[in-house]
């Protein structure tokens, strides 16, 4: 099998030992090191001869122990702006392309995680799959234009745009169609896509948003407050990566509501306005969007808390923290208790809707109102661990088919494999340009419920989602 690709930067040799060719550690930008640390993404340098692309590149600096890095066979470095490509063949075919932006609160994760191995998806769908590394944490999200200049903001999003530009220009060398690119993202990856859409980015042709906490795009004030925290925590005048990560660990990340201190911010440049405001007030790029959440997103974050934590007062306090002055906390709790038995379930469901489901629904509703094709879903497939339910991250093994990489999220039995096949086929239909199910067009509109039974529902939990209508910048 041909495992050589000729890009405008030089020739790459990938790993062609199986029925899918893999190009690992492909540089899409110059290393953001030295004077480029706080600078916008710069073009990758060209090379002479054949460059080997058979090993993953270093992962971005993040809070992970050396022992864990060694156990996983990983290295970590600021020189991390690489991507990985899985393709049935590096030929002249024009296959649909799926570019995936990982989650992790824009502070954790990497495109070479076993969970995100694109082999099964590329093989099943005859598509090209791309995963991306980008700057994370303080190195990618610090809002300090007075320190590093106006172009030092939202470096993570700048990296992601550069990666998408590279894919648009180069993917034809890998058997992909540069005119049929779908960008998909989960969690903070989905938030980034919402920000890109709000900024008018036209580097992709379809978009998939999975479990995005879209209300967590930060204001300038919130981002400035994080920078101020960092300033008090940083001890070294000329910090190295270890110094930066040590200071980063001291920044309060919040819990309920989630603070998202490393998520994108409204900087007036890369992100001129909150995505929920943009979606409501003016058209974004007129592309199809598939978006949704899992039924029990927040359960995985509540799992470490003991049962004794979930008292009546605790649940009411959580409702008040979420609702602010816009609602009576007792009304919020009563609405969620109507169809839930345990206080733990009530507490988790409120955050799931506030942080994930309601802002996603509002974002896609506005996009549909401008005449765009929108497909909304809720993943209801439960974890083998009953306490987790259909939790955050459970969509990942189902989409990529790598069930064994995270057995506690979706299971590994025959039923889980069938669920994975269903999810893959629906996402692939969308990636190929089709309609995977009935379009969503209004509040309470068509939502695909993905579980042991897959069906389209209407008015799905409309009463609960309506509670948060005026809680976000789009309605504030």
Strand content: 5-15%
Looking at the structure, the CATH topology is Rossmann fold
User: Could you give the order of strands across the largest sheet?
Assistant: 3-5-7-6-8-9-10-11-12-13
CATH homology-level superfamily: Alpha/Beta hydrolase fold, catalytic domain
Q: Could you report the average pLDDT, rounded to the nearest whole number?
A: 94
Could you tell me the radius of gyration in angstroms? 22 Å
Uncertain runs are none
Give the SSE order as H and E letters. Answer: EEEEHEEHEHHHEHEHHHEHHHHEHHHEEH
Structural class by secondary-structure content: alpha/beta
Largest sheet: 10 strands, mixed
CATH level 1 class label: Alpha Beta
Taken from the alpha-carbon principal axes, the silhouette is globular
Work out the number of β strands. Answer: 13
Please give the count of helices.
17
Cα separation of the termini = 56 Å
Fraction of residues in H or I helices: 25-40%
**What count of domains describes the coordinates?**
1
CATH architecture: 3-Layer(aba) Sandwich
Protein name: Carboxylic ester hydrolase
Family: Belongs to the type-B carboxylesterase/lipase family.
Keywords: Hydrolase
GO molecular function, one term: hydrolase activity
């Amino acid at each position: 099998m041909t495992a050589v690709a000729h890009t405008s930067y030089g020739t790459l040799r990938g790993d062609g030992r199986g029925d899918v060719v893999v190009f690992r550690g492909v540089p899409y930008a110059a290393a953001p090191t030295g004077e480029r640390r706080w600078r916008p993404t710069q073009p990758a340098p060209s090379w002479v001869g054949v460059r080997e692309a058979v090993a993953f590149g270093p992962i971005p600096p993040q809070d992970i122990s050396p022992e864990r890095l060694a156990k996983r066979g990983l290295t970590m470095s600021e020189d991390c702006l690489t991507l990985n490509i899985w393709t049935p063949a590096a030929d002249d075919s024009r296959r649909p392309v799926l570019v995936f932006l990982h989650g992790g609160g824009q502070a954790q994760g990497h495109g070479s995680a076993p969970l995100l191995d694109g082999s099964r998806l590329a093989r099943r769908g005859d598509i090209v799959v791309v995963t991306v590394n980008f700057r994370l944490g303080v190195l990618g999200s610090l809002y300090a234009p007075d320190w590093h200049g106006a172009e030092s903001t939202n470096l993570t999003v700048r990296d992601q745009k550069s990666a998408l530009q590279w894919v648009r220009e180069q993917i034809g060398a890998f058997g992909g169609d540069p005119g049929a690119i779908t960008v998909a993202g989960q969690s903070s990856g989905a938030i980034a896509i919402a920000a890109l859409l709000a900024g008018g980015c036209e580097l992709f042709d379809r978009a998939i948003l999975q479990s995005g906490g879209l209300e967590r795009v930060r204001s300038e004030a919130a981002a400035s407050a994080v920078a101020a925290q960092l300033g008090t925590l940083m001890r070294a005048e000329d910090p190295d990566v270890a110094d930066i990560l040590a200071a980063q660990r001291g920044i309060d990340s919040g819990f309920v509501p989630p603070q998202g201190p490393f998520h994108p911010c409204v900087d007036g440049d890369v992100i001129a306005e909150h995505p929920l405001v943009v979606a409501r007030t003016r058209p974004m790029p007129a592309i199809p969007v598939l978006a949704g959440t899992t039924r029990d997103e927040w359960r995985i974050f509540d799992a470490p808390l003991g049962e004794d934590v979930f008292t009546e007062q605790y649940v009411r306090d959580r409702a008040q923290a979420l609702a602010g002055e816009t609602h009576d906390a007792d009304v919020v709790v009563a609405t969620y208790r109507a169809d839930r038995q345990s206080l733990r379930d009530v507490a988790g469901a409120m955050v799931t809707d506030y942080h994930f489901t309601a802002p996603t629904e509002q974002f896609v509703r506005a996009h549909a109102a401008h005449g765009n094709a929108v497909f909304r879903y809720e993943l209801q497939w439960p974890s083998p661990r009953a306490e987790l339910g259909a939790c955050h991250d459970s969509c990942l093994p189902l989409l990529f088919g790598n069930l064994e990489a995270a057995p506690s999220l979706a299971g590994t039995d025959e039923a889980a494999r069938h669920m994975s096949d269903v999810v893959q086929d629906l996402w692939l239909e969308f990636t190929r340009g089709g309609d995977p199910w009935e379009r969503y067009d209004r509040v309470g509109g068509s939502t695909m419920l993905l579980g042991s039974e897959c069906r389209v529902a209407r008015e799905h939990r409309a009463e609960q989602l309506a509670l948060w209508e005026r809680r976000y910048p789009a309605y504030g």
